[in-house]
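STRUCTURE REQUEST FORM
Protein name: MerR family transcriptional regulator
Source organism: Ectobacillus ponti
Requested output: structure tokens
Priority: standard
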Amino acid sequence: MQDESYKTKKVISIGAVSEITGLSERQIRYYEERKLVFPERTKKGTRKYSFQDVERLMDIINQMEDGVQTFEIRQELLRKEKEKEMTDRSVRDQMIRGQLNAVFGIAKPRRYPR
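Status: completed
Returned output:
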């Protein structure tokens, strides 16, 4: 997972993000206000972004060029987060059932409605 750690580490200043993406600092702050990117703040209040944030901003730019509104982008982001949460929960539940079955031989597979 080392690949993920460098992508999610918040180390890039808003000025560098502006240079990389071609967006103005004001545009970047706007996307933060619209809850599309989530920079961390230093003790002095400086925004710090990750490579993942830069990728998301580039995706936002492409979607905006295709006529997608920020509200729609946010809804899609929430949908993807919910899907990931459900998948993570399902995997965790399967692992627990497997462990119970291995230790006690009692866990029966649950059937989930589709």
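Reviewer notes: The chain has a mean pLDDT of 87. Residues 80-114 form one domain.
Form closed.
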